[in-house]
Amino acid sequence: MAEITESKNFIHAFIDEDIAPGGQFAGKTVHTRFPPEPNGYLHIGHCKALIIDFGTAEKYGGLCNLRMDDTNPTKEDAEFVDAIQEDIHWLGFDWGDRFFFGSDYFEKDYEYAVELIKKGLAYVCELTPEQFKEYRGDLNTPAISPYRDRPIEESLDLFARMRAGEFEDNKYTLRAKIDLASGNFNMRDPVIYRIRHMHHHRQGDKWCIYPMYDFAHPIQDALEGITHSLCSLEFENHRPLYNWVVENVSVPCHPRQIEFARLGIDHTVLSKRKLRALIEGGYVSGWDDPRMPTLCGLRRRGYTPASIRNFCESVGVAKSPNTIEFAFLESCLRKDLDATAKRVMAVLKPVKLTITNYPEGQSESFEIENNPNNPEDGKRSITFSRELWIEADDFLAEPIPKYKRLYPDGPECRLKGAYVIKCTGCVKDEQGNVVEVLATYDPDSKGGDPADGRKIKGATIHWVDANNCFDAEVRQYSNLFDDPDPDAAGKDFLSCLNPNSLEVLTGCKVEASLGDAKAPTSYQFMRLGYFCPDSKDCAPGHLVFNRSVSLKDSFKPGK
Ligand code: ATP
Ligand code: MG
User: Cα(272) to centroid of ligand 2, in Å?
Assistant: First the structure.
């Protein structure tokens, strides 16, 4: 597992200041939290936040809480709560026994709201949502709030009755009394409680009023003793409200909110709402579709935790939004798998190759290295016989200029790990399609090793013994979106989809050693790319592989 980078980032600079003698957290343990909303699966953007939250705590010998931010009852689901924990553990982070639910603080939230009313800092408002918008004002005009001076006793009574379920949704709200003329609209007497007669996944029907995020979140942080509440940039404008809440209710501590830029990746979208729309529209098979930027999708595609963490760490922590190339994520995976993946042979678009001078019915074995980068990974035995499968495009009946593979009377080519062969012709069907390639082998070239010093003009090609192999389905993926920036504001992201992002190949041939392949083992299919067995659909007798990434690196550093 990659180490968390030690490089200085601006968050660390703030924390250094805070814990230095005389700083606001001098002598305190640095305490962060990761607060996912359990309304979907985590995506790679969350990994960046995880690295920042857990990584910062780790760097300072502090603690990081995992808190399900389930204050909004609308979309939360236990399925997501479980999946989020699984994904975080998979990445290698651990919260120990510090696992919380925002909804566990509902009673406290209520008490603090009552405290605000008693202090004259909150009031019950009965503007309709439409009126609320109408009275919001603009930069030059303050908002209008006709219920602002409601007597404290009346607000207390109405708020208690809101809780008791006397009123329908939206009939009343509780608003913080701050500043109707503020240039920051979040401070113009924001709503802090609303009525929602909804079932909550943990609280059941206990509540019909729910606190707004901007009120609940600072309270949750303060109650857990968080020192640094690290969140993404869209909360920057909410920081004054965050501070107002912790300053005006009697919470035990005053955490500091620090914002960082969200991670963006080209050719994909990183928003649960949009990812959910892809699933609901049937554009992908689910949260774990291997084309999805979700952690479960990337895992199923064959991404390793190390490759994802390395990616997020290399990207760094910035204060301004940045979009990173998907190609860079791919290059991080390639780098990881190059070191670890076993090399095997598979033929994706097969055509039969018959070695006409090899005795019928005969078979022999060759030892080949599992990973030339890692001699300790050992060798395995593969079989060879008169009939082999090769890639259809490793043969041309009529060669084109510079073509160095098989064609009638063409150059000698090596069969990887086996013999040198020479193409002598082919057999075509009635429609003129090549159905069989014919070649002769040189019995003295056994081992097919380039180190034998023999000058071979043609290419080295991969092959599979047709008498000892398995059929497989191979799923090849490309960008989910053709448009590099489908996430851009105002763009209809669904119209940016790549209709050819999934290509399913059936009747592929894989070497016998793959008969019991199981996720999460990754393989390099020689000359083709890195592949892994599909965790859902692959089984002995029904092999299914996902292409994790091709071999060719299209990422240009510094581009
Ligand atoms: P989404 O739009 O995907 O639902 P969110 O911010 O609503 O994103 P949460 O579940 O609320 O998702 O996020 C938990 C934490 O992860 C938050 O602190 C949030 O700021 C952070 N986060 C979410 N997306 C990204 C991203 N792309 N880059 C960095 N951090 C992110
Ligand atoms: Mg959210």
Answer: 8
